[in-house]
Sequence to fold (153 residues):
Amino acid sequence: MDEGEEEGEVLAADTSQLSLHLDTLIGHIEDIILGDEFFKLREGFLHDHCQLFEDQEENKLEYMEVYQEYLQVIEGHLESELERRAPELQISTLLQTLSSSSSSSSGCEGEVFELLLTLSDFSAFKRDMLEMKKSEENDTTQLTDLLQVTSLK
Fold:
């Protein structure tokens, strides 16, 4: 066997392993993000800080401070949950795989990535804060409070 062929096989095996690693990480992240604990953490943070925000184009310096705290809370939760669920997996591998796949034709797409991007987008964060503030001011109920399970029997 040619030395170039061996290197190609090793590279393919490494790429395959990274892909498997990425799929596993994405599965765990999806489970975390869709879980009740994450929902309560995020909603609680929005509830606790929404009164500071105003529906104006200009942003106050305090918004960025709250946003930075929000990122720390969300990222900290994701990291600790990933560590608890799969200590053998490394976030650095995810970042490495994402950076290498963004230059490839496959790219990373999907709801998990969209949600992660939304969680780290200041405009989306401010919009969520304003929506929470509006719902509290209007004393509206949460959608989850409106859901009711009824037996059809």
